Each structure stands twice: as structure tokens, then as C-alpha cells.
Amino acid sequence: MAELKPLVQLDRVRKEFGAVVALEEVTLDVYPGEIVALVGDNGAGKSTLVKLIAGVHQPTSGQIVLDGEPVRLSSPSESQRHGIEVVYQDLALANSQPVYMNMFLGRELVRGPLRQLDRPRMAQETRQLLDELDIRIDSPRQTIRDLSGGQRQGVAIGRAVHWAQRLVLMDEPTAALGVQETKRVEEIILRMRDRGRAIVIVSHSLDQVFRISDRICVLRRGRQVGIRATPEVDADEIVSMITGLR
Amino acid sequence: MAETAAPPAHPDERLVRVGPLARLLTRPDIGAFVGALGVYLAFGYFARGVDWLGDPGIAANWTDQAAQYGIVAVPVALLMIGGEFDLSAGVMIGSSGLLLGYLTTHADMNIWPAILLVLLFGLAIGFINGYTVVRTKLPSFIVTLATFFVLQGVNAAGTLKLTGQTAIQNIDSASGFDSARRFFASDVTTYGFKVKVIWWIGITIVGAWLLAKSRFGNWIYSAGGEPNSARNVGVPVARTKITLFMMTSGIAALMGIIEALELRSMQSKEGIGLEFIFIICAVVGGCLLTGGFGSVIGTFFGAAMLGMVQLGIVDAQWDSNWTYTFQGAILFAAVLLNTAIRARMRRAR
């Protein structure tokens, strides 16, 4: 395992909003084929960290390093160009558009000299991807509004898997789901890891964190409290790290 | 794999069956078409003094008026689907026509380079509108209202200072005028159909194609309907909106050029009030005030409807002051219909 190079490195990343320090000095390496769980109480800075990697915000100081090169992720599309995809808490789906269009929104396939939308091909590739990931949706032409919560989550994750060459960030991917649907989404996440992607997942559910993650990074009030290999800690230790109580 | 994911044999009983007729009526362009057809037939009855339904000369008159509305209504509709308004689209017609008049009569330019400059001016104003809206995040209603009033003052004061009158005359004295007029503002046939009508149809076709078939059209829908989601997945929302504002002002400038060439002079108050007519056309065409939904083809029929009302009231020998009342009634009916259709669509799901 020693020859594996980290896909994404955060080097003393800090973020201030005016006088408020949302995140101070987080350092984290994420390797291919691993799931890192980001845990912490509300306001610990998890979402800020996700948004820094997603290109929504830029760090006040410190740097994000990809393949050994420091990069400036100035916008979501810049992050996407580097192979980083995000599954947002609100899923970022266009509810009135069909499933296939959501898969390709902003990166639509076109054909012909007039560069018109290639709807049949987008629908077909979507069908393929949904089948591969075993996401059960009747037709890629269904509108998002007509889907269940779990199916929508499946679309958002499917989109991330399809485009992410490097890293998938997930902000509370199962918070709104029932038991069955959560199980299915977790299976998809594990399949994604097996494809060699790096995954960073924000979760409030410690059960889930212990079920699927390889390492756990704990934040408290904007500070990085520690990183633990999941098999080597128990829930009590993580809870005390999150709350700061012994 | 494909077999396991195949749809279940019996469809979900929670889904309500929607008949083909109901489905057809929920399309915004069909509604506008039916409305325009209704107005056409109604004036066939009310304007019996003339051959309203059969005389091509009469059709030439109302299509001329409809083109006047419909050309700029196309980008206004796209802009509304993209979630924004442009209240300066009307006054831009005056500003552009006056600028063309100034460049040709006072700066002695040939008409063709002057036309090019006016179009660039239109695009620049559109860029300012769009950039201001995107950067300040102020409602475009306010930003373009400001542009509207600024330009209105410039038009009136500038014209007066330049000519001592409220209009710029003698634009036909410019070199190249005749060739430009043939291209933008001549009659096409013996019945007096204007070349403007071809511009109207052409711009509608391009607009409808963009909206339905291009990536840009897809971005317009998502920028208007779900801007945050669109931005998060990498749709260039800001660039899309700025482009839409530039298209609107640019085509309003084209309309100003057409009018200046047609009338050979330009009044300083030209175009004011039309901004609302464009919005009415777009709403009749099914555009929602909230963005994310609408139709260019529907807007075409909206413009046709308003053109027919304008001329039909004259041909029916009614007091033309009633035109405004009709326009208001049409707007109200269209909004009610749109709302009902949307509610029906939601229920149908």
C-alpha cells in the first residue's frame, strides 16, 4: 500500500468569513479506494470543508494539493475539471427535468454541426449507468419530481460516480432516507470505493460511519481534533472527540 | 441486469392517467395558439365592415404590428424563462433608433457601419444590465427599471440638444440608406407584407431552436428554475443570464434600426411602454414570472394575438382607447390559464 499516492491533500487549510473563523488549519490526505468520514457537531466546519474542496469557497490560507500540485479551485466547474464531484445535501437536482438531463446538466452531450442536444444518447448512457450501480428507476426519461427520495439520492450519486475521476464528496447522503434506502445507498458507496475513487462522506450517524468508513476525521468548532483508522477506535472515543468531553 | 431493472408490469396505481387531449392543453404554445385563433375568428365577426378573415392587405397590417411586438418578445421570453426581466427593452428601441439617426445625420456615417455600431451599443447596454444583476444580486426588475429611466432621459434631452426638436429627421439622407431599408424595412409582396414579418418568424425559429435543442437552452431552463442546483453542478448561470440580457438589448437595438429605416425619422419617446407589451406576449406564451418555464412558439402566438387586437379594434370601428383594456384582459386571462394549467399538471403527477 505504500506506493499509493494521495488523490487529494489538504495542507493546513483555513477559512474565515469576516471575523468568524469557520475552519482552522485542517490537514488531510485522501487515498484512492478509501472512504474518509467527516464527523463533528453542528457548526464544527464540516460543510465549510466540503465547500472548499467543491470549489464553492476558497481557503483563506493553506492549500489544496492534487497530484502533488497546489491548485486553486475557484468555482464548482473548476473542481469538476479536476475530477471532484459533490453530492449535496439538497442533491442539486433540477426537479422539472428528466433523470438523464440531470446526469448531464452542464455537460450535455451534443451531436451534429449545430451541436444540438443528443437526448437519445444521454438517455441510453444514463440507463447503462443506473443498471451498473443497480439504481432502480423505471426510465431515464422520468422527471425528478416523480421519483422517491431514495431514487433521487441514487440519481445524485450516480451523477457523481459517472463524472468523478478522483474524489466524491457526500454531504449527509442518507439523512432523509428510510432504513431500506439507506442500505441501498451504502451499497452504492461501497461499490464506488471498489472502483478506486476516493470518498469523503459527512455523516451524523456514527453507526453508518463505522459500517462503511476506513478512516474518521473529527472536527470540533472549526478545529481538527484528530484522524483515526476506523478499525482501531470505538464509538465512545469518537463521541468524546466530537464533544470534547471525557 | 437490464431485466431486473425493467419497469414493473402493472404501473404504479398512485399515478393518475392523463388523456392525450388534457396533455395537449397543458402545453403553453397550444394554449396561446388557441387564444390567437379565437381572437382572429372573433374579429372576423366584429370587423364585418372589412374582409378581416380573407383580405391579405388586412393580414399584412396586423402582422406588421405583431412583428413589432414579436421580434423583441422572443428574447424577452427567453430572459423570463431564465428567471429575469428587462424593463429597458422598450426604451432601447428609441435609444438605438436615435443613435442611428445621430450617427447618420450628424456624424455623417454610412448607414451600414452605423448599424453595426448601434448593434454593439445594444449588446453593451445588455451587458451592463446583466453584469449588474449578476454581481449585485439585485432583482433585475429594479436594475432594468433604472436603465429604463436613465435612457429615457438621455433620449429626450439628447435629441432636444441635438436638433432643438423632439425627433431626429431625414435619416434617409444617409448614404447606403436604400440598400439598408430594403434589407430591414421594405415590403415583401404586392399586398404590403413587411420584411419585418420575416425577421419576426426567423428570430422565433432561432429562439425556439435554441431553447429546445441547444445546451444554452437547457441552461436557460435550469438557470431560471433551479439556479442553485444549476450552479452547483457547473452550469455557467451568470454567463447564461448575461448572454440573455445582451440578446434582449441587442434585438431591441435591431428593432430600433428597423423602425428608424422604416419611418425615416425617430421620435425621442419611441418604444416607451412596449416593454410591458413584450412581457404580456411572453406571459400569453406560457412564461412564468418565476422563471424555468415557457415557450418561444407560444410567445409568437401571443404577439400575433396582440397585433390582431391592435388592428382589429380599429377595423371593428371601436374606440382605439379600448386597446389597453383588451391587452390587460388578455394578460389576466393568460395568467389565470397558466396557473390553472400548472395546478392541473401538478395534480396529474
| Fraction of residues in helix of chain A | 25-40%
CATH topology of chain B: ABC transporter involved in vitamin B12 uptake, BtuC
Percentage beta strand of chain A: 25-35%
Largest sheet strand order of chain B: 1-2
H and E string of chain B: HHHHHHEHHHHHEHHH
What is the distance, rounded to the nearest whole angstrom, between the alpha carbons of the first and last residues of chain B?
28 Å
Question: Biggest interface between protein chains, with counts per chain?
Answer: A-B, 37 and 29 residues
Average pLDDT confidence of chain B is: 89
Query: What Rg of chain B do the Cα atoms give?
Result: 22 Å
* Proportion of residues in helical segments of chain B: over 70%
Q: Which structural category fits the helices and strands of chain B?
A: mainly alpha
Measured distance between first and last alpha carbons of chain A = 34 Å
Task: Please write out the topology.
The complex is a heterodimer of chains A (246) and B (349).
Chain A: E1 8-17, E2 20-30, E3 35-39, H1 46-54, E4 61-66, E5 69-71, H2 76-81, E6 84-87, H3 99-104, E7 110-111, E8 116-117, H4 119-132, H5 149-163, E9 167-171, H6 179-194, E10 198-202, H7 206-212, E11 215-220, E12 223-229, H8 235-243
Parallel strand pairs in A: 3-10, 3-11, 6-9, 9-10
Antiparallel strand pairs in A: 1-2, 1-4, 4-5, 7-8, 11-12
Helix pairs in contact in A: 5-6
Chain B: H1 20-25, H2 28-46, H3 56-81, H4 89-106, H5 111-136, H6 140-163, E1 167-168, H7 177-185, H8 195-213, H9 215-225, H10 227-232, H11 237-263, E2 266-267, H12 274-284, H13 296-315, H14 322-348
Helix pairs in contact in B: 2-13, 3-8, 3-9, 3-11, 3-12, 3-13, 4-5, 4-6, 4-11, 5-6, 5-11, 7-11, 8-9, 9-11, 12-13, 12-14, 13-14
